[in-house]
Amino acid sequence: MKKLLIVVVLSLILSGCIGVGSKKGPKADGEFVKGQVVEGFPNIPAYPQAEIIESFGLGGKFGVTSVSGDELAKVVNFFGPALSQLGWQNSLKKNSDTNFEYEISNDEFKGRVTINTAADGKSSAISVSVEPR
Questions:
Q1: Superkingdom, according to UniProt (predicted)?
Q2: Across all residues in the chain, what is the average pLDDT?
Q3: Which pTM was predicted?
Q4: Sign of torsion, CA 27 109 88 82?
Protein backbone atom coordinates (compact mmCIF):
# COMPACT_ATOMS: atom_id res chain seq x y z
CA MET A 1 0.00 0.00 0.00
CA LYS A 2 2.83 2.38 0.87
CA LYS A 3 4.52 1.75 -2.50
CA LEU A 4 1.27 2.39 -4.35
CA LEU A 5 0.82 5.68 -2.53
CA ILE A 6 4.36 6.75 -3.43
CA VAL A 7 3.79 5.87 -7.10
CA VAL A 8 0.51 7.81 -7.20
CA VAL A 9 2.03 10.88 -5.53
CA LEU A 10 5.05 10.86 -7.85
CA SER A 11 2.78 10.49 -10.86
CA LEU A 12 0.75 13.51 -9.79
CA ILE A 13 3.84 15.61 -9.17
CA LEU A 14 5.48 14.70 -12.45
CA SER A 15 2.30 15.07 -14.49
CA GLY A 16 2.62 18.84 -14.24
CA CYS A 17 6.04 18.64 -15.83
CA ILE A 18 4.98 17.20 -19.13
CA GLY A 19 6.30 19.49 -21.81
CA VAL A 20 4.49 21.07 -24.70
CA GLY A 21 7.16 19.72 -27.04
CA SER A 22 5.63 18.27 -30.17
CA LYS A 23 6.96 15.71 -32.59
CA LYS A 24 3.55 15.46 -34.21
CA GLY A 25 1.36 18.40 -34.93
CA PRO A 26 0.83 20.90 -37.69
CA LYS A 27 3.97 21.69 -39.65
CA ALA A 28 5.99 24.67 -38.40
CA ASP A 29 5.85 26.67 -41.62
CA GLY A 30 5.59 30.23 -40.32
CA GLU A 31 1.81 30.26 -39.97
CA PHE A 32 0.10 30.62 -36.60
CA VAL A 33 -1.76 27.45 -35.61
CA LYS A 34 -4.82 27.84 -33.40
CA GLY A 35 -5.31 25.50 -30.42
CA GLN A 36 -2.33 23.20 -31.13
CA VAL A 37 1.43 23.06 -30.75
CA VAL A 38 3.42 23.03 -33.99
CA GLU A 39 5.68 20.13 -34.92
CA GLY A 40 9.20 20.34 -33.49
CA PHE A 41 8.33 22.62 -30.57
CA PRO A 42 10.94 22.12 -27.79
CA ASN A 43 10.14 20.26 -24.59
CA ILE A 44 9.07 23.14 -22.36
CA PRO A 45 6.72 22.57 -19.40
CA ALA A 46 3.05 23.02 -20.15
CA TYR A 47 0.97 24.52 -17.37
CA PRO A 48 -1.62 21.87 -16.40
CA GLN A 49 -5.01 22.41 -18.04
CA ALA A 50 -3.98 25.65 -19.72
CA GLU A 51 -5.77 26.29 -23.00
CA ILE A 52 -3.42 26.63 -25.96
CA ILE A 53 -4.45 29.70 -27.93
CA GLU A 54 -1.92 29.44 -30.76
CA SER A 55 1.61 28.40 -31.63
CA PHE A 56 4.17 29.29 -34.25
CA GLY A 57 7.38 27.89 -35.67
CA LEU A 58 9.79 28.84 -38.43
CA GLY A 59 13.50 28.25 -38.92
CA GLY A 60 14.04 26.78 -35.46
CA LYS A 61 12.23 29.66 -33.71
CA PHE A 62 9.06 28.79 -31.82
CA GLY A 63 6.33 30.46 -29.80
CA VAL A 64 3.16 29.42 -28.01
CA THR A 65 0.49 31.35 -26.13
CA SER A 66 -1.85 29.77 -23.59
CA VAL A 67 -4.28 30.86 -20.87
CA SER A 68 -5.07 29.41 -17.46
CA GLY A 69 -7.90 30.22 -15.08
CA ASP A 70 -5.47 29.89 -12.16
CA GLU A 71 -4.17 32.91 -10.27
CA LEU A 72 -0.93 34.52 -11.40
CA ALA A 73 1.19 33.50 -8.39
CA LYS A 74 0.28 29.82 -8.78
CA VAL A 75 1.24 29.83 -12.47
CA VAL A 76 4.50 31.72 -11.84
CA ASN A 77 5.47 29.34 -9.02
CA PHE A 78 4.85 26.29 -11.22
CA PHE A 79 7.37 27.18 -13.90
CA GLY A 80 10.70 27.45 -12.00
CA PRO A 81 10.77 23.85 -10.70
CA ALA A 82 9.07 22.48 -13.83
CA LEU A 83 11.63 24.10 -16.13
CA SER A 84 14.49 22.75 -14.02
CA GLN A 85 13.05 19.22 -14.08
CA LEU A 86 13.06 19.28 -17.88
CA GLY A 87 16.67 20.51 -18.05
CA TRP A 88 16.10 24.24 -18.59
CA GLN A 89 18.25 26.77 -16.78
CA ASN A 90 16.01 29.63 -15.70
CA SER A 91 15.93 32.90 -13.84
CA LEU A 92 12.81 34.79 -12.81
CA LYS A 93 12.39 38.54 -13.22
CA LYS A 94 9.42 40.52 -11.88
CA ASN A 95 8.57 43.27 -14.37
CA SER A 96 5.50 44.45 -12.43
CA ASP A 97 2.87 43.09 -10.04
CA THR A 98 1.07 41.56 -13.02
CA ASN A 99 4.01 40.55 -15.25
CA PHE A 100 6.78 38.00 -14.64
CA GLU A 101 9.39 36.63 -17.00
CA TYR A 102 11.62 33.57 -16.90
CA GLU A 103 14.77 33.77 -19.01
CA ILE A 104 15.36 30.16 -20.10
CA SER A 105 18.08 28.19 -21.86
CA ASN A 106 19.28 24.66 -22.45
CA ASP A 107 21.92 23.16 -24.75
CA GLU A 108 19.85 23.87 -27.88
CA PHE A 109 17.58 26.85 -27.20
CA LYS A 110 17.31 30.16 -25.38
CA GLY A 111 14.23 32.27 -24.80
CA ARG A 112 11.64 33.32 -22.28
CA VAL A 113 8.41 32.37 -20.57
CA THR A 114 6.28 35.45 -19.87
CA ILE A 115 3.38 35.14 -17.43
CA ASN A 116 1.00 38.00 -16.86
CA THR A 117 -2.55 38.79 -15.85
CA ALA A 118 -4.76 38.39 -18.91
CA ALA A 119 -6.99 41.15 -20.27
CA ASP A 120 -9.98 39.86 -18.28
CA GLY A 121 -8.11 40.64 -15.04
CA LYS A 122 -8.71 37.11 -13.72
CA SER A 123 -6.90 34.62 -15.95
CA SER A 124 -3.17 34.17 -16.40
CA ALA A 125 -1.66 34.46 -19.88
CA ILE A 126 1.46 32.42 -20.65
CA SER A 127 3.69 33.20 -23.62
CA VAL A 128 6.74 31.13 -24.54
CA SER A 129 9.28 32.10 -27.19
CA VAL A 130 12.53 30.27 -27.99
CA GLU A 131 15.20 30.31 -30.66
CA PRO A 132 18.34 28.29 -31.33
CA ARG A 133 21.43 29.19 -29.27
A1: Bacteria
A2: 85
A3: 0.80
A4: negative
